[in-house]
Amino acid sequence: MRKSIRSFTPEIVPLDVVQSVVLGANRAPSSKNTQPWKLILVQGEALEKLRFDYIAAFNNGKPSTPEYVYGPDPLPEAYKKRAVELGKAFLTHKGIAREDKEKRREHDGENYKFFGAKQVFFLAVNKGEFGYGTFLDCGLFFQALITELDNRGLGSCPQYSVMSYPDILHKHIPNSDDLLFLLALPFGYTNKESIANSFVTEREGLDSFFRVI
């Protein structure tokens, strides 16, 4: 069962394993075999420099300036209810009280540390060369990537939150000015001692989204 992993061991996933994961995901379907996705792996010193700037931006209260809007604003009530319930459940699971603002901010800040992952994938498309279907194709590829990782016993956590600071990504990823970054995927070996990794989200019942005609 796939779930989001938010704490990783310091161990690096070998490059041959990473390449195998990416090649497997690259069999994802896309319209007319267009394969519009671009995938960038950041690790080592490059990732540490990127992480440093992200943490500084978050701690300094830098305004969010995403290059695309992920979902409807405001959220439909049903979606909002699920999002609020998730937030409450996860904080409760970690033992963080609603009124503990310092701990809540520390919790939020973990996003900008990429949850301590030593390797992070960044998914992108060429600017000016995408439509709704392109995003769907990229989603299929991204899910395939997650599945390939999971099949090898590796954890990951999809992130839109770090799209808040695209200028930082463009600064640290060479030759990326013509790319629109869509999502990040910290991944690695699961830290089995972390309480965050024992959290499992609720899912809607079959009747709420599935019907047979």
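Above is the first protein from milestone M3; the second protein from the same milestone is given next.
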Amino acid sequence: MNRMIISAGVFVMLAMGASMAQAQVGPNFDPADWEYGTRFETDGEVPIWNPVMQKIKNGEPVIGGTIRATDPRTYCATAAAGYDFTWIEMQHEAMTWEQVSRMWLACPGPAVPGVRIPHESEENIQKPADSGALVIVVPTVDSVEEAQRIVDWTYFPPMGRRSNGGGQGFSGTMWGGVPGGYRNTWNANVVLFLMIETLEGVQAARDIAKIPGVDGLFAASGDLGNFSGFRAGQPQYEMLITEVVQAAQAAGKLACGPLGWMGDRPEFMCFQAGTEGANIRRGAQAEIQAANDRFAGVVGSPRIASVLAELSGGCGEIVYEADCLRAVRGAAAAAGSLTDAEQQGVRARLMEIVTAHPNQAARIREVAAETGLRLGNE
């Protein structure tokens, strides 16, 4: 009896082997002709569980808060401050992917994890994606070929070439329990912004924007000045910004820029906000100002605290020169209603900023003078 069962089992296995042998890859096998299977399909419409992608679909602006520190508590405070996503600065900081991964795991929300990677490569996209990033920003994109490689490494097949290697992003602690499943719905939920920072990038911007999977073009206000030799407001600079905006709009994608552009450049719909350091200074100085206002009749505190707070917030760490210059204009204009002693306090703070940022010193002096406040040694 047992022999009969074993013989039957062997016969079934042999039959299965014969069936599988019929599906061998032939000499004319071509991956381009492959019909992708249904393994990762969802029932009905693909769920959108990334709040940033949902806001984009709704036509709402999205704002990312910049993170340059490595302390999870500082990260969590920023993630809970009201930003749509966090913008961890991996292009210009020396932190490691391990530190980034720990911060995201500590606080995967309310702001969704996002990052500006150092440069385009499989490693620099795969690691943050596997660690839980839902917004990926790529700097200095110069060509269609580079942009297509970025899309390849960002998206799972059949749209891209992202490896299904696991990581904390797949876990229940982060996105393992999302509707429809993380792997099955990733391609519809990840947000990809490409930064146009060079003249070559501007030249290719219209073709870059057309690539499926690119959600927006970021007009890099600082580096477009760096690579062009012109500053905001000058015709040559504005021509470059306009080209990036029009490239994005023609392709139905978002135009992105620094948060300072939200008020006077309505065509922009996604933004990079200031750093956590600037936020700490602004918050602390606002509290101090409130206390000074409360006891003004008792101790006669100076009226310049709010002016100094804006200066420190805009110019403490100059990520984008335009943000600092906007704060300088505001401080110089406000100084006109202050006493001579208080004006001198504003000048002293501006001189500290000039000393700390020699590359922007001449422009800070120029803007302050244009607004009616001359600094010393002029």
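Note on the second protein: The beta strands are 62-67, 85-89, 114-116, 135-138, 191-196, 216-219, 254-258, 270-275.
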